[in-house]
Amino acid sequence: MRQLEIAVAGAGPAGLAAALVLRRAGHKVTIFERFEQAQPLGSGLMLQPTGLTVLSGLGLLEAILARGSRIDRLYGADARSGRTVLDVRYDRARFGLGIHRAALFDVLHDAVQAAGIAVETGTEIEALEEGDRPRLICTDGRRLGPFDLVVDASGARSRLKRFARDPSEPKPLAYGALWASLSWKPDGFDPHALVQRYDRASVMIGVMPIGRQSAGNREQAAFFWSLKPEAVEALHAAGLDVWKERVADYWPQTEAYLDQIESFDQLTLARYGHHTLKTPAGRGLAVIGDAAHSTSPQLGQGANMALLDAAALARALESHEELPDALAAYCRMRRWHVRLFQLLSWAFTPFYQSDSALLPFIRDRLVATVAKVPPAPHLLAGMVSGTLVDPFGPLGMVEGDWQLPPLRPVEQSVAAKR
């Protein structure tokens, strides 16, 4: 395809990655960010082999690995009985990477700056003026453009996704979580595992190592407590010490983390919603990341899905001469992988975050047992790694060989053909 003039709305991981891959494909890209300074939001996340594959293709794998913490296991137990509820290990030498959102942002942002991609901050997008070459309409009345293509990477609360062919809005989920980034405390915790404790499905506590925000910084952990967003006010009213005593009662080993929390201001409330755009594209518009599909973080796929979206869009543009054909191809490339994992997340979330008494009863007594019987371990590993169905082939990519030290850069079949 000819060189396109592309606007990317949003400077989160999805927007930054999309800008990078599109710029490297030869397009002229400008990022528009609503904040006065582009910055990360939130605590930690998990990069899976899917997301790591995309980052490797961008030449950023080494920098990402240096910041994060390798995760080989996801383990959860009942807070009262100690019964194992969840025990999933990666297979085929794959692994996850716990990483602070700020570290991922910095690596991507540095690469964007090095590529000379313009980032215009303080620009809040309100709407899309559709046409052969769409324009962006800002909340202050400014009209930006025209552009050949607009990429909506502005998250679940996007104002642009309503211009997709089949728009939809997220349905709020009952449970969210309070998150904090704290200093890593190794006593009693596996440095290569995401560990959780549950009381039915109404209480979930987790600790995940997330490496360093930058070189020279101390190792950190993401600490989270699941709750309903409307319960936060009552939590604050009862006081910090009451909450900390409750958490410690469930999981005494977390006192080393609770001692670091001196104010509720250190905790960030994350709200979750579930939605999947049937067609993540419109006239001159491509929708990626949480704007196209959002859900709870139970399967740890959010950032990875966004990175795959960015790679798919670039591949579609490279493979088709006409923009409408490329956008249709982008939708096809991501359709089944996105829908499968959205369905799995929708199905599994109530087992871990809900008011149900029956579902956690089934979970606690059956899941850990069934998970040991083949082929369940392989299927669970595929769910966690995001590879239950092949996400790479439709994108013209090949997953790297994680078994060889040091990790080899991921090969892309497109590059091989050249």
From TrEMBL:
Keywords: Monooxygenase, Oxidoreductase
InterPro entries: FAD-bd (IPR002938), FAD-dep_Monooxygenase_BioMet (IPR050493), FAD/NAD-bd_sf (IPR036188)
Cited SUPFAM superfamilies: FAD/NAD(P)-binding domain
MF (Gene Ontology): FAD binding; monooxygenase activity
Membrane-spanning intervals of the chain: none
Alphabetized Pfam families for the sequence: FAD_binding_3 (PF01494)
Domain FAD-binding: 5-334
Name of the featured protein: FAD-dependent monooxygenase
